[in-house]
Design a protein that fits this description.
2 copies of one chain form a homodimer. By secondary structure, chain A is an alpha/beta fold. Chain A is 46% helix and 11% strand. The longest helix of chain A is centred in the middle third of the chain and has 24 residues. At the A-B interface, helix 8 of A face helix 8 of B.
Chain lengths: 340, 340
């Protein structure tokens, strides 16, 4: 039994005694306690692949910051790895794939991830669930197929993602074949996360914003929808960064919550997504301001969402150089200012 | 006298016998003729600073591709350099500032650029104007103050621009002081470009999309508006990439044309910007497709803009690895399909 189920009730669209709050990337570099664990290891991937330690850093922000949910410490790129494309995490630079997908025949070397893959993630979820002992819900997650696809084609981050986007024009059938494999892998992966203890799921479409609207509908939302249609065990949140134009289409999707980035306007989103819970959307840079400024920005954010079902969060992952004291102050402000 | 003034008439909102077309970054790496000039020199900056050669590469796409305007070959970062902050162009990586602005006292080392600065740009415009001999209009340009500011704080490109955005929260007065200096420098610079022969001006706000809407209004649009209010000699185009939310505010700005990126919907923009000419907005990746696909995408774009005053372009600069034959095909399609 959960002692604090605020976020699940908000996700179901219920009125809650206050607004629940958590932060994307709350388990990570902002906390000295995280860096101590991380620095004792050879690299980021060792932390992701060691269930006891992944569980430890997952729980840290619950205890230290007082967030209303834990999100499992992992990486969206475990899926391409399970499909046969290994990634490296380069310090201060980000992810890098030594081999990328270039031609249709490269797809023959990939496979759909199955239930034998990624057991370290499921193990980390089980340990976390046990150690949380019902304190707060546990969120599982995956990347959206389009975002995973982009990494597999580009081999890392990119300013324009022109290689990945090029394929949508030059060989859409190949693109759809790869997106389908990623989608199948992701559905199995998320279902196993629920079995292992995830109370909620979030799909991160980090590179949503680079696509023209028609392509976004065809090459991204279609696959996210398939995932949402395949999982009805727990509520799902979809966060499509930069895809402001897609909110009307999301209104008809089988997810419970839609995440907003800090460019999006909560007042507009409320009118479009009348039946969805909304999540977000403070500018992560607002946490660089004074406590007074953070308090005011938090109040403004809460006012923007009004009485619409709302899960407070930033509009993007918290930036690594943010003062954890300011993060805690933001969380405390949400709790205090939203209480009624 | 101009032999082809289609783009100026379209910018004034007049109906034209066909839609004029040019491409952002048309003078550049897509053309082998450009690369031949560039490779004969020590670096990118030598080309920017050598008026005869800058004029030569400015004219190349007019002759080779058949565009309806030339845009002077230069870089938006000549403004911070004229203010006292030197930039380097690192091959395949982009711009880099060895010194950046970190604290308020750093502003004391900067100055407002004056009419003695950047004479190589004015000289390049004069030569180009003469060599074009009225063939097509010549476009001058500058970066928007917010985008220039971002480079001066970050020292180069960035995924999140969190240093530049941080300053808007931590020291807005310092941010406004720097934005004001950049704006003053830019107004003088653009006026001199007009004196040297520019028939039109474009303001590029490349990093518009990273700001929350209130910040965009306060720290970017306000300064772009000041520039537009200060120059009435020639029509101005404002291209704020990613700032879809700002279109209603742009309706009241003293610019003639608003550029749309490929995420923006022309049908929506037409309703908001009833008195403005619209520019754009084919996805640059569409030029990786087959000729058949390019033709169809061009027809779709023209249909979206309908009978609204329109200057055809991509929704972003043309990507360097685009086949110039495909670029020419796109230009020919616009000319053919829009003729009436």
């Amino acid at each position: 039994m959960l002692k604090n189920d605020l976020i699940l009730r908000a996700a179901r669209g219920e009125q809650t005694e206050r607004t629940p709050v958590w932060l994307m990337r709350q388990a990570g570099r902002i906390l000295p306690e995280y860096r101590a664990v991380r620095n004792s290891l050879s690299g980021f991937k060792e932390l992701v692949e060691t269930p006891e330690l992944a569980a430890e850093v997952t729980i840290q922000p619950v205890d230290i910051l007082g967030v209303d949910a834990a999100i499992i410490f992992s990486d969206i790129l475990v899926i391409p790895e399970a499909m046969g494309l290994t990634y490296e995490m380069v310090e201060k630079k980000g992810p890098h794939f030594p081999k990328t997908i270039e031609k249709a025949s490269d797809l023959d070397k990939l496979r759909v991830a199955d239930s034998n893959d990624l057991s370290y993630v499921y193990e980390a979820l089980k340990i976390t669930k046990k150690e949380l002992a019902g304190k707060v819900p546990l969120i599982g997650f995956a990347g959206a197929p389009w975002t995973i696809f982009s990494y597999m084609i580009e081999g890392g981050g990119s300013k324009t993602f022109s290689k990945a986007r090029r394929l949508l024009y030059s060989d859409p059938a190949m693109a759809e074949r790869l997106l389908d494999m990623i989608t199948q892998s992701t559905i199995g992966y998320l279902k196993k996360q629920v079995e292992a203890g995830a109370d909620m799921l979030q799909i991160f479409d980090s590179w949503a914003g680079v696509l023209p609207p028609e392509h976004y509908s065809r090459f991204s939302l279609k696959y996210i929808s398939r995932i949402c249609d395949s999982i009805d065990e727990v509520p799902i949140t979809v966060f499509a960064k930069g895809a402001w134009w897609a909110l009307p289409e999301m209104a008809n999707m089988n997810c419970r919550t839609v995440g907003l980035d800090w460019n999006m306007n909560a007042a507009d989103a409320r009118k479009i997504l009348t039946t969805k819970t909304l999540q977000g959307n403070l500018d992560p840079c607002a946490l660089y301001g004074s406590e007074e400024a953070i308090r005011k920005a938090t109040q403004n954010m809460l006012d923007d969402f009004g009485d619409h079902p709302h899960i407070a969060n930033l509009g993007h992952g918290v930036y690594p150089d943010t003062d954890p004291g300011k993060v805690k102050y933001f969380i405390d402000c949400v709790k205090e200012l939203s209480a009624h």
